[in-house]
Amino acid sequence: GALPAWMRLYFYGMHGVTVDVLLSSALRFARSPDPRMLGFSSPFRCVLHSLSHLALERLYVRRPRRSGAFLFHFLLYPSAHVGLQTLAAHALPLGPGGGPGPAGALHLALQYVLALYHCRVLLKRFLRLRYPGPGQHPAPGGTAHPATAAAAGGRRRRARGHAGAPGISRQGLPDLLRFLFFGMHGFLDEIFFTFFFNVLGRGGGAGASSGHTSLWSFLMYGSCSFVVEKLYFYLHYGRGWGTWKRVPIYVIFIYTWELAWGLGLRMCGACSWDYSHYPLNFKGLITLMYLPGWIFLSVYQDLLSNVLWQVQYVPTN
């Protein structure tokens, strides 16, 4: 029941983009404080993170259990991590328009700390996630989907999963981890969108080698997707609504959420987007030009939610 390779690659790429955004935003803010808190990455770095961290994972699972464990955790694994990330920094620079990221001793120190985090915290827990194969129960003793209980006024009953799948286990990912996942996915969405927008808008010229997002997007996307997921559980499992009956509710909420956040951030000078040059915009904060994109992401999130509710965490002894 280990997570399939495609799922691990997906997460490693998304997590790597998040780290890129956090580092580049902090370095940029230190040079020139900007309440928008912009950070940078690119789809190329996403792919590179996926492949490099899958390779580091293979190294990690072969770690010594007793003798030599200290040297592995504090020397061998960090050395491999720092080497790969240094090569990546030279091949695909991090920063606005592909500009340089941290250099010299600062880069090495940051990467060493990140290596310890990956080895001692992230992989130690991430590799305990399990995903059931086709036709298997999500976990022994599966219980009703939480949305089913909510729709029934708290009554306990077994949920009918998608495609007749059994009920979802209580061992599914907790709400906090789901919020963190959606926040990181928001970074990934914006990096990909702004990267391709730059490529199409600038013809691959200066500034087209990276995408950008704002640290505020983590909270905005994380909270929005978390609520939309709750709507999905209630409307689909509780009310039996089909996809195209649910999507208008999603879209209305997304536009309302984007407008509310935009108004709040604009008051603080921290709003990182402006649609005033687009037709069909309202106060430059929302525009119907992005309606197809929001519809696509809404439907895609339903698929992600179905996957996430089958992921289980096997606790350590």
UniProtKB/TrEMBL annotation:
Keywords: Membrane, Transmembrane, Transmembrane helix. It is a multi-pass membrane protein. The gene is Tmem229a. GO terms for cellular component: membrane. The chain crosses the membrane at residues 12-30, 68-92, 104-123, 179-200, 215-235, 247-264, 284-300. Residues 137-153 have a biased composition (Low complexity). Signal peptide: none annotated. This is Transmembrane protein 229A. Belongs to the TMEM229 family. Residues 137-165 are annotated as: Disordered.
